[in-house]
Amino acid sequence: MFKKILSNLTFWVLLAITCGVLVGHFYPATGVAMQPLGKYFIDIIKLFINPIIFLTIVTGICGMDSLKRVGRVGGKALLYFEIITTLALLIGIVVAHFIQPGYGVDTSGVGATDLSKYKGDVSVSWMQFFKENITIQVLLCSILIGILLSKAPNKDKVLKPIYLASKYVFRALHWVMKAAPIGAFGGMAFTIGKYGVATLVPLAKLMLCVYITMAVFILLVLGSLLKFYKISLLAFLNYIKNELLIVLGTSSSEAALPSLMEKLEHMGCHKSVVGLVVPTGYSFNLDGTSIYLSMAVLFLAQVFQIDLSVQQMLMIVGVLMVTSKGAAGVTGSGFVILASTLSAVKVIPVEGLALLLGVDRFMSEARAITNFIGNGVATIFISCNEKLFDRGRMFKAFHIHAQPKHVHVKTEAPLTKQQEQVISSESAS
Q: Can you list the domains of the chain with their CATH numbers?
């Protein structure tokens, strides 16, 4: 039993997070010095993101029975993202409006912080978005190459080395993920050491509001989407618990993105859906970010005792629907998005952002986890909707040996022999 615990990645990541909190709290300077551990881990993981996106999309499209389906999956994904993120924005607005976390907050610290890097020209440029967002560029190139290869007369010959490359890329990823506890320790030690738990006290109401709202959104909204296809949200969360802990420790969904793509495929989602939905969702399906941004704007309005009309609230939602996506991939995007929204609304002082600087890092963990779960649920939902989901593999992945009698388990869109062989070799490794 003890040996099994010691070989469990979840145990080591949890231990690392706990140690990171203790080091950051009792030895702040040492905690801050641990930043490179978390940063370098994320940087290494980032190296895998684009190759995995490319390999997954190309092999997925070539394994599709129809190119029309590829376009349909992409269209459904974008429609899904717009509906769910808009719902997230509205939920954030409603909760902040009724709970009013901003009333009574001391504004004496406003103006003492340099916010020049967040001000100025904060307008959203879609051209800049596509130029700076390498993930979107790789996604578009992969789709194009996948379509061309799917029409090639000898595509099986061409795909053989691509499947082989996929096998070794995922094998390398598994080795890197063994260092996840080190990255989680570095990230958490730095956060606690630099910002300290004491910074949470003045804005504890906002923090609590954001965390509870995101938890309710995950359980009710995302849970209902999975329940529609008779899939347990809790079973899915248990399945990706290692990835969730890594995101918590590093405050970055990028740290577990490649691993999520692999796990979604292993639990029955078709390669092409995983390849199309997850990378696109990384830029366009930011549920947690949407909730936080809408709540932060209303929080600042309440701090400065500004009564927003219904028309102004709707305008905030409209602006956020654009800015929350257009600024993805930009350094300091959270504050860039807030600054651009406040500038567009022209009612709330941009200087109010100083109030959020101390707690933003702590709330980024909630944002990252919600975004991460949201993209996983989106992939499963669209896979089921397109009948490209293998329930047999899901039960196997969730370790549910005794399937309920009332649930009809149907295997949809089975993988090719070649794909099954690759996945088997990956699992064995």
A: 2-428 (1.10.3860.10)
